[in-house]
Amino acid sequence: MQVQFNNMIYILIFITLLIFVCYAFYIIKPKKIKVVPKHWHDILIKNVLFYKNLSTENQAVFRKRMMLFLSEINIDGVNTEIEELDKILIASSAVIPVFSFPNWSYNNLTGVIVYPDSFNENLQFSDKDTNKRILGIIGTGRFEKQMMLSKKAIRKAFNNKTDKHNTPVHEFVHLLDKMDGQIDGVPEFFIGKEYIEPWLELMHKEMEAINNDASDIRQYGGTSQAEFFAVASEYFFERPKLFKQKQPELYKMLSLCFQYPKNNS
Predict the structure, then answer these.
(1) Could you tell me the pTM of the whole model?
(2) DSSP β-bridge partners for residue 112
């Protein structure tokens, strides 16, 4: 009787282990990425200049990277409908600054929350709310690993192809800045320690120029180191040829940081 009881225990333990192994295999197996819709190409050609300037081969890579991002990150709207174009533009904004890093995954982001227009620090956006000046922000506290974006800002970022401004790219650069633990304008995760001091010197020099109206980088870049890095990166990706012409030292440093433009051909 005791032997039978022991055998039953062993069988139950075996079944439990088998269930655990099967479950573990299920949750760690790679996600199946859906086939990239063919019509995305035309939408991207029309809206995303970075994509348009890529080779045909790299355009295919870009679309797959977008699909991977969308399979990992939730995008939800608050009082606004999330249309396919919104998803395409958000995913493009995520891929652009990390395109030269083939295995990149945003492990410090789980979701993007889209508001219809600008909002305030309390994430309020109604006609009755005041100080609605925010177009994008990286969440903290209970919104950790969340990004909040204005739908209007997302669309505007890609409508004007001659400006130096792109709100969603700006916020994704903040996420890259945060990879070393803090958003401080010093991308330690991406540049070697030997480049940190030269970067700080260059950044402070240009911030002073911005605040003295002696720079073509927009004024928001002069408010803090973190904003300078994000604003300069917007310019770098939006107007690379002009940025290289106007800001050769910064262009060289950001090319090192983003490993650009080796894959942008």
Answers:
(1) 0.85
(2) 75, 147
Contact 150, 167 (CB under 8 A): yes
Domain boundary assignment for the chain: 1-30, 40-258
Would you call 167 exposed, middle or buried from its count of C-beta atoms within 10 A (0-12, 13-18, 19+)? buried
Report how far residue 59's alpha carbon sits from residue 136's, in angstroms, rounded to the nearest whole number.
Answer: 27
Report CA Rg, the chain: 23
pLDDT value at position 1?
A: 52
Q: Is the pLDDT of residue 140 over 70?
A: yes
Phi, psi of 39 (to 5 degrees): -70, -10
> Of 225, 223, 214, 258, which Cα lies nearest the Cα of 240?
258
Using one digit for the tens of pLDDT, what is the confidence trace for 65-106?
Answer: 999 999 999 999 999 999 999 999 999 999 999 999 998 999
The C-alpha atoms of residue 237 and residue 243 are separated, in whole angstroms, by: 9
Residue in the block written with tokens 């990149």: 104
Element (H, E) at 197: helix 193-211
Q: Which fold has domain 40-258?
A: Collagenase (Catalytic Domain) (3.40.390)
88, 43 in Cβ contact below 8 A?
yes
The pair of structure tokens assigned to 259 is: 């490993």
Q: How far apart are CA 255 and CA 183, in angstroms?
A: 20
Instruction: Indicate the angle between helix axes 248-258 and 193-211, nearest 10 degrees.
Output: 140
pLDDT score recorded for residue 94: 98
Residue 146: its H or E element: strand 146-150
pLDDT (0 to 100) of residue 163: 87
How far is the C-alpha of 75 from the C-alpha of 90, rounded, in Å? Answer: 9
Q: What is the pLDDT of residue 223?
A: 97
- The single residue listed with the structure tokens 């439990």 is 16
